[in-house]
Amino acid sequence: MSDPALPRPTSSKQLEEALDAAASNLDVGTDLSFRETCRVIGRALTYIRFFPYRFTAKFLLFGISLATPLILPWPIKIVIDNVILNNVVDPSAFPSYFAPFVNFLVGKTSFEMMLWVLLLGVVMMITIGGFGSTGGANDQVDATMAQGHDKATQTENDANSAFSKFAGVLGFVEFRLQLGLSQAVNHLLRSQLFERIQSLQMPLLSDTRIGDSLYRVMYDTAAVTNVFFQTVQSPIGAVLTGGLVLTVMAFNYGEAPEIIWLGVCILPIQLIAMLPFPRLMRRRSQASRAAGSVTTGNIEEGISNVLAVQSLGGNKRERERFSVHSNESFKRYRAELLVRLLYGAANGGARGLMGFIAFYFISSRVIEGVLTPGDYGVLFYYYAWLSGAVTALPYLWIRIQADVPGIRRVFFLMDLPSEADRSGEELKSINNAITLHRVSLTFSDGRQALDDVSLEFKKGEITALVGPTGSGKTSLAYLIPEFYAPTRGSIEVDGVDTQNIALSSIRSHVSYVFQETQLFSDSILDNIRYGNPTASREEVERAAQTAGAHGFISDLPDGYETLLGTVTSKISVGQKQRIAIARGLLKPASVLILDEPTSALDPETESYLVQALHEAAKDKLVVIIAHRLSTIVNAGKIVFLEAGRVVEQGTHEQLMTVESGHYRAFVELQSSSRTGLS
Fold first, then answer.
1. Could you check whether 424-509+590-678 and 519-588 share the same CATH topology?
2. Phi first, then psi: what are they for 551, rounded to 5°?
3. What are φ and ψ of residue 628, in 5° steps?
4. What pLDDT does residue 88 have?
5. DSSP string of 341-406?
6. CATH of domain 519-588
7. Which end of the chain, C or N, has fewer beta carbons within 10 A?
8. Is 97 helix (H, G, I), strand (E, B) or coil?
């Protein structure tokens, strides 16, 4: 995998080395090239297709906002030249699109002109919320909330980002539109990534840290907001604004061409100031995200193992470990922030230099009489707006460098092989048997779990998988619903190779009760019918009675409506296991697999469950993984595994007749253990 989970460090030095390794490993080496960066951006932009109307409306409003500098500075010129200095109104000194208003002012007194200018300002305040602003690309209304200085705590702002260059009525409309659009884009990407993680192949899931996946779903996805909006709006906005402003300046102030050329030089100067920073920003952002995911993983792991931590006195050690990870996360963000500050200083220096030169030339032309004092205000307004708009282009590229690593981390998980990618024939039912032909299974780290296994599981028969710990029993059972795919060999369902059957179809016919009980933060009723949502209350209670769970559930204050999320720690391991067994029994499936179903059951409940399984086996294919002799002794077929190979199979009576047999030794060992205990 090109984005591996970080190894657990044992010192701050090893932690730093691990984070550096993660930061330099984004795509067979994290340092994305220009082409790869553009590819990630292009893929993010494809999400526009899911919201064509809302994005078009937002884009149109944004386009209208770009036209505001065509109007805003000219009332300033009227106030200075015609109201304050009391010069005669000259319509030819104004752009043609503003001439009707100027012609209307011809012949009016200074007081009347001021009143009409104020009235124009009121109308503009109500509609666009601005009059006589200093301009600039960053003049906008933003939705911002309190945030901290690391990736995780800033993503709520990114996921709920909204802005408008307008205020007033149009600003409210645009702001509300983008807020909903930002949330919709982030919701879609989060949902897609969550769904993808849920459908990852089991080997990939087992190699993925939960905390890292959580970080990607909640925090990395928010990076799409800036790319989604800014990569479309900023370049177009900069080009249109710059073109409009330069055109208006050239048309009205052609007698001072050096000012026009100065405006043209803004972009090259800004690009030169930006050049040292994109790669630094990209690497620091990736390192910050890697450190954040390690911290999230540490939280998840610490909470999941809180009982072990408390019982083994590891509170101090876990607190210190978390402190190291958390401090490293903030440290990595400070490194990213330093790059931002350095770029800001370079950008500000370049803008300041150009502003000083502009001030010199404009002032000189006013002193020489080429320009009027009113032109001074107009040109400085236009220059400030032009400088802000053009600066948005290099700033956008720097900003994207901080976002692309997050989007890349999202797309990395989404591109991993998924079980949902496999289609094929739909099974109506499993009527006869599931057959394994010379199947072997080797894990990605080289360990061989199964070796040359040939076996048949028949419907109407209970098959018990027996053997020492690590012999491959669970791995073999995982092959039936294809949680694992065999490395070699083939598996057939009623004579059809499973590779030709839709994976979802196979899973729909298998009910699997895992050794590690997995319950949801929901009511007991909904937990039991999770695999059969339409089951009636009577069917749920019948399954619970079979699993020996009905009695203790009924004794709970809320019975079947008890929320496990609030009392799960107060329910015993055996009670949780009974609920899981009831859930497995209730699912209408042709295959029932139980991994150590009686490990936490008392003898009476175990006996009742075994009888129920024999009843269920009349029309199901039942597989039991167990160590207890009382659970497996009456199975139709017992398969004994050792070191990933089937060494013996048969009924209990048949296997007990094998001198020096593995199963016989297993039974005798259990018998002697019970005798010794008694």
1. yes
2. -60, -55
3. -70, 130
4. 87
5. HHHHHHHHHHHHHHHHHHHHHHHHHHHHTSS-HHHHHHHHHHHHHHHHHHHHHHHHHHHHHHHHHH
6. 3.40.50.300
7. C
8. helix
Q: Which residues contact 587 (CB under 8 A, 6 or more apart)?
A: 511, 531, 532
Q: pLDDT tens for residues 10-59?
A: 444 444 444 444 433 333 345 677 788 888 888 988 888 999 999 888 88
In whole angstroms, give the CA distance from residue 171 to residue 21.
45
Q: What is the pLDDT of residues 590-610, one digit of tens each?
A: 899 988 877 767 777 777 778
Determine contact, residues 529/555, Cβ cutoff 8 Å. no
CA atoms of 276 and 349, how far apart (whole Å): 15
Q: Please say whether the dihedral angle defined by the alpha carbons of residues 168, 173, 174 and 179, taken in this order, is positive or negative.
A: positive
* CB atoms closer than 10 angstroms to residue 320: 11
- 189: phi > 0 → left, psi -120 to 50 → alpha, else beta; which? alpha
Q: Which two tokens stand for residue 587?
A: 């699912």
At residue 339, the 3 state secondary structure works out as helix
Residue pLDDT, tens place only, 213-250? 888 888 888 888 877 777 777 777 777 777 777 887 88
Answer whether CATH 3.40.50.300 is correct for domain 424-509+590-678. Answer: yes
What kind and span of H or E run contains 32? none
What are the residues whose beta carbons fall under 8 Å from the beta carbon of 172, sequence distance 6 or more? none
Pairing of strands 433-442, 510-513: unpaired
For residue 116, what pLDDT band results from cuts at 50, 70 and 90?
Answer: very high
- Return the structure tokens found at 372: 């009027």
> Cα–Cα distance between 41 and 400 in angstroms, integer?
9
Q: Nearest 5°: phi and psi at 452?
A: 55, 55
**Tokens 């050792």 — which residue?**
642
Furthest-apart CA atoms within the chain: distance in Å: 122
CATH topology of domain 12-73+132-414: ABC transporter transmembrane region fold (1.20.1560)
